[in-house]
Design brief:
A hairpin with a 3-residue loop joins strand 20 and strand 21. It is built from 3 helices and 25 strands. It is mostly beta strands and 412 residues long. The strands form 8 sheets. Strands 7-13-12-9-16-17 form a 6-stranded mixed beta sheet.
Length: 412
């Protein structure tokens, strides 16, 4: 009988909670004196890979908390054993405006590799303030072996159009695109990333009218044996603002193509000559899918189904200068965010004229979306969305795989 204090000890780093009651025994509603009692309960972090059942190269995080995923690739490679470490490689957020030296801890912290798994935590206010994207890498002996995209975004929604279920936003976007929203930060954060065809690694998209998303690179020293050092983001003190990304325009000395080399370096745009021969009917490799588990890159059939809806279902929506998009069937929005050239530069001609006409075709407003299957040898295909809101010509263009295009994921 009497009052006894109960003490709860929280060990955040290892997600362990201890309850300590000195001198009491707890038995239902009865408390009787006894020896000191210590009780430990494990609070498990959210397993993004569902104990290995949902392995992906991209994981969506829409709540603050502690997380874990298997250090495993969709192709089946597992990273386990001694000598591995994990850390962030590069990160970006629409809140990092010019000159804003934001702390990476606002997006992610407590990154740790342990027993074949990678752990991390997100800021308690991140979904309201610091949404963004982080690339987490696994390293051994200082060499980056693989990386995963942690997509911190307001929870994506599914949109059903033409019998297919699409994500409501571009891959890497913070929210559904609304070009009529006057909040610059809103539109900056809703455009998404670019991708080279067949690669899992995102490339920063446009932040606004004259620059890409700002990004910050980690201090890790990447493997320099392939003479790629100058194409890595390695300086923690410098925040990039330029419109270019790290583009390789020729094959570096000593570099040979392999799936591992093409996939494991997440801070370079590969040159056209660094891609393997692409045959008709080749598809985006599943092991390199940039989409979250349960989704895939837009297929040719899915793109054609959107095109077949006809002009009355494709409506251009406009905002301020350099903002715009196409709304399909009244509910699926594709933003006009152009593409990234082989030089690494963003092709900003997508917004020279905010109100283009048939006579100003050179000043079109548009966006380009990769589809998953090759239909012309050594070329890959994209849907080209132009000013009037219609697919360009027949809806497709054949381009080289090294250009950076938008990706829209579709439910399996």
């Amino acid at each position: 009988v009497g009052t006894h204090n109960l003490t709860f000890r929280i060990h955040a780093a290892h997600s362990i909670m201890e309850k300590v009651a000195n001198g009491v025994k707890i038995d239902r509603a009865t408390i009787t004196p006894t020896q000191a009692l210590e009780y430990s309960a494990t609070i498990l972090p959210t397993d993004l890979s569902d104990a290995g059942a949902k392995i992906a190269n991209c994981y969506v995080v829409s709540e603050a908390g502690n997380y874990v995923f298997d250090a495993k690739t969709p192709g089946g490679t597992t990273f386990s054993g001694d000598g591995y470490t994990a850390d962030w490689v590069w990160a970006t957020s629409p809140r990092w405006s010019n000159g804003d030296q934001a702390n990476i801890d606002n997006l992610i912290s407590d990154i740790e590799y342990k027993d074949g798994k990678i752990y991390f935590s997100t800021n308690s206010n991140f979904i309201n303030i610091y949404v963004g994207n982080i690339i987490i890498g696994i390293f051994k002996d200082g060499d980056l072996k693989w990386s995963w995209h942690i997509w911190e975004t307001i929870e994506p929604q599914d949109v059903v159009v033409a019998g297919y279920t699409f994500m409501d936003r571009n891959l890497g976007a913070m929210r559904e695109y609304d070009p009529t929203n006057a909040d610059t930060e809103y539109t900056n954060g809703s455009r998404g990333f670019y991708y080279q065809w067949g690669r899992k690694d995102p490339i920063p998209g446009p932040r606004g009218a004259s620059a890409q998303y700002q990004y910050r690179g980690s201090a890790y020293a990447f493997d320099t044996s392939k003479n790629l050092a100058t194409h890595y983001v390695t300086n923690t003190a410098v925040w990039a603002k330029a419109t270019t990304w790290n583009a390789l325009t020729s094959v570096p000395d000593g570099w040979t193509y392999s799936a591992e080399n093409a996939l494991k370096y997440p801070t370079s745009m590969l040159a056209a000559a660094m891609f393997p021969s692409i045959a008709v009917d080749d598809v985006w490799p599943a092991a390199a899918s940039p989409c979250p588990y349960g989704y895939h890159v837009l297929t040719n059939d899915e793109a054609q189904a959107l095109i077949n809806l006809g002009s009355e279902k494709w409506v251009r929506v406009s905002g301020s200068s350099r903002n715009g998009g196409t709304k399909i069937d009244g509910k699926l929005v594709l933003p006009f965010i152009a593409y990234r050239k082989a030089s690494g530069e963003i092709g900003f001609n997508y917004a020279k004229d905010p109100t283009p006409t048939a006579t100003t075709v050179s000043n079109w407003l548009g966006g380009k979306y990769f589809v998953s299957k090759c239909i012309t040898a050594n070329k890959v295909t994209n849907v080209d969305i132009v000013a009037a809101g219609q697919p360009n010509g027949a809806g497709y263009q054949d381009v080289t795989a090294n250009l950076g295009m938008s990706v829209r994921c579709v439910k399996d």
